[in-house]
Amino acid sequence: MNIPQELRYTKDHEWIKMIDDEHAYIGITDFAQSELGDIVFVDIATEGQTLEAETVFGTVEAVKTVSDLYLPVAGTVEEVNPVLNKQPELINSDPYGEGWMVKIKLSNAGDVNNLLDAEAYNKLVG
């Protein structure tokens, strides 16, 4: 299982990657996509909205289930990955790269420090 060291994680299996001091990409982890199975649809209709941490920002549909997506930190959803409309399977093949889900502007960048680091996330799923 791939757990990149430079990312932060949630107990709900989302990851966050800082782009700069106030922007980040968010997606689901390799563990989450493997548990879900083949992802066939992504529904994220929160672009432009400011949401609190742990708020549902969308859903991901796999062959066997639909799962909510939770924002790891408070912020404004600035962009939804447009490629996922036509290629949701990128979440399965490249969850930490081309399979990112949203780009946000964080309300407080320091909140990222309260999330799990790679070692703690590995213990959670290991």
Distance between the termini: 9 Å
CATH hierarchy class name: Mainly Beta
Rg computed from alpha carbons, rounded to a whole number of angstroms: 13 Å
Strand order of the largest sheet: 1-2-3-9-8-5
Q: How many domain modules? A: 1
CATH-defined superfamily? RNA polymerase II/Efflux pump adaptor protein, barrel-sandwich hybrid domain
| Overall pLDDT score | 96
Question: Helicity, in percent?
Answer: 10-25%
The CATH architecture classification is: Beta Barrel
Shape: globular
Described by strand count, sense and barrel closure, the largest sheet is: 6 strands, antiparallel
Tally the helices: 3
Question: At the third CATH level, what is the topology name?
Answer: OB fold (Dihydrolipoamide Acetyltransferase, E2P)
Strand content: 25-35%
Name the structural class: alpha+beta
Q: How many beta strands in the DSSP annotation?
A: 9
Low-confidence regions: none
Which series of helices and strands comes N to C?
EEEHEEEEEHEH
Please summarize what this structure is:
With 126 residues, the protein is of the alpha+beta class.
